Amino acid sequence: MQPVLHFVVNNQIITRTDTFVPVRNSRNYLYAEFEFKTEDWAGVSKIALFHNEGNEQISILLGETNTCLIPAEVLTSTSFTVSVVASDMITANAVTIKLYESGYRQGDIPEPPPSLYEQIMNYFDETKATTTGAAKEAESWAHGHADYPDRQKDNAAYYASEAKNAAEKASESVRTAATQAISDISTAKSEATQAVTSEGAKQLKSVTTAGEEKVTSMTQINTEFDTKSSQALNDLQTEKDTAVKNIKELATEKTDEINTAGTSQKNAVNTAGDTKVKAVTDEGNKQKTAIQEVAEPFLSDINRINTMFNLLAYTDKVYSIDIPLWERTQGSAGIKSDDNAGLIALPSTAAEHRQNDYEELPWFKTIDVNAIVDDNGIKKITAVKGDDNFSETGSVDVFVCGLAFYEKWSDLGNGYMRYSRCFTPREGYELNKLAYNLDSTKNPFFLIAKYPLVKGEDGLLHSQPNKRCAFRTSDSATEAISMNDSITHMKKRGKYYSLASFLDNGYIQTTWLLMFGDINSDKTMTGCTGNNFQFIASIESDELHTYFPVTNSQASNIEVGSYVSVGHEYMSGSSRSADRYDKRIHELAFDVKVLKIETLDDNNKAVYLDCDAFSTIHQESGDTQLRCIMSSMHWRTGFNKDVKGRTGSPCPTVAGLTNRRYPIVFQGIEMQLGIYEIMSGFSIITGDNTCEIYGLADATKAVTAPKQNQAGYIKLSEISITSKNTWNYITHLNFKNGYLCAASCGESGSGSSKGCGDAVNLSGSVGDTRELRSFGGLWYWAACGLFCLGLDGGLGSCGWHIGGRLSVNAVLQEG
After folding, report:
1. What is the DSSP track for 306-354?
2. What letter would DSSP give residue 238?
3. Is residue 525 a contact partner of residue 337, using CB atoms and an 8 Å limit?
4. Cα 589 to Cα 609: distance, rounded to the nearest angstrom
5. Is beta strand 664-666 parallel, antiparallel or unpaired with respect to 570-572?
6. The whole model's pTM is what?
7. Could you give the dihedral angle defined by the CA atoms of residues 652, 655, 656 and 658, in that order, rounded to the nearest 10 degrees?
8. Relative to the CA of 310, which of 30, 212, 654, 706 has its CA 20 to 30 Å away?
9. If you average pLDDT over residues 560-569, what whole number do you get?
10. Where are the beta strands (DSSP E) in 528-587?
């Protein structure tokens, strides 16, 4: 790899594209190469600007290759910046380059490089020397020169003098012919001189004063030559045939020699320039090939690499959040530190795009893509949103894609733990394993399913928009989502597919903390975690309508845009029941959208639904009336299109962000739609009030009856609680492998307004295994959030309130 930092310039935006790792204190070694993509930079002089950490500027004039040596003065600290300007006045952004520690410890960096003025003057002097040399040589061919003693009798003036001597006896009748012959000599001389000095003229274009000086010099040569030639003409007296023959023979011979010499010099200059251009071009091609070779295993469509790298710009910045420990404070507010300090993120709504500084940082941005993980455990992007072949239907999956990152977790010793993230290698930081493939190769990106699982057109479970979440009812057994059912579902998708891994959920947790700076996620957005209602029709009618009648007070609990089902109660033994598991609860309208709410009369409102018309007349079972009932349901996928940003909720006002009725889109990922998401893994009860948490690392090793330290799984935490079969609010968190997991719950003083405010519910006996139900469901209220875990169902438990999310990240050779 050549020591060249390569920068691509599009209009006023500079992007670094090379992978070279620069080290401090080098000298006359590291180069910067600029590739100007847009026409606005063509044909203008360009100056590279380098700033060290003291903001001292060093300017370097770029030549034809747009490459320069990076000055040693900017290579002595931890970083420097690079920019470029052009005449009249094109500017560009500055790119910060991180410098790694070197082993150099003594001596000083040598003399600084010349100033910009000195560079121009040096360039002038070089050009002057080149042009002067060409002029001397041309002069030697014209009338001799002290630097060319061998041409004292081998020049145009000498041969003209000889012609004069030979022509002393010529008659007046040959004057006209002789004049034409000397004119031929003059023309030949001019053409030769022009060839010799053409390269000098090119160089003189950028230093006009020097060029004019040399042109003047050449004019003087012409004048001297013309004077002597005219004198020879006035004295010509020789015979016509002899004079013409002698002059033409001599002129032809010498002109050939001059042309040969001039062409040789011109070719030498051109060859040197071509060699230089070729060297730069070859190096650029090498770098391009290197990038493609690195990217090709990860991108099934190599053309998409340009989109990826244009988005995923690198930086040496570090973003940190200091999280309070329970022993210090029972509060939830963290402290943003390092480059994260001062950044603000506010979730948007359906009506307002609110301030989110992270949207302007390329390394935090995400895009939507189609992707797969093949049977070799290699993740591949197959299309980027905006491509003709990008799809949200059929057999594809939609993922959120972002820049791979490094992270570090440290105890500050002052009652705070610090989570830090950066995007280039740094001592003490580990690359988050979302970037890994099975063979331990690493991607420059990560992939997380954009949507909870839905049933696709091919009958398999996918990540797609505008569909009902997959869950189990008495009429949808093929959509049952449990830990054990998922093993079968995911094998149908491919060898390395699984439910969401601890890595997927961990990204959401840690990015949330960095952006919002608070471990209690309910203070920012609550998701659909308190939207549980079932209302009997307030007006019973056999007329067909697309609305469901409710009382005025009931209507205040229903949000336009949310989803409901309409059906009838059913008999369970001798009693009426309305469990959403039963298909009869959904028989008139299954998980349909609320379109609007209008007044029916003084006491009732009509809730209009996106469905076929139905009546609200009751059914009968013996003497029991089975009433028409409307039940709240989960949101369907695809609601993010109604949010003015990639982070927020589809609520009309800011108040809706925390009223527990609206789902969340975070960094483009839809979550908390009113349904639990099972994380791939399990918990196992190890004592009266303790359990261990394991995450699936290798999808091919998923089993339905796992044990402690099961192969293919990673131990994430040990949890202690105060009481079983109830919610225990978390007081301590443990961070391992990119995932934040509860460690201690239910201690004195804990609650929904203390610490993270999330809870764990554990049930069962020693040795029992439990599903890892994350984030919360439709009616668990304050217990829900980023760190919530429902550990009260066996690995085969499923129901209408339990869903999941696809993952391609269980490809780790661990556990």
Report:
1. HHHHHHS-----EEEEEEEPTTT-S--B-EEEETTTT--B--B-SS---
2. B
3. no
4. 9
5. unpaired
6. 0.67
7. 160
8. 30
9. 98
10. 534-536, 547-551, 563-568, 570-572, 575-577
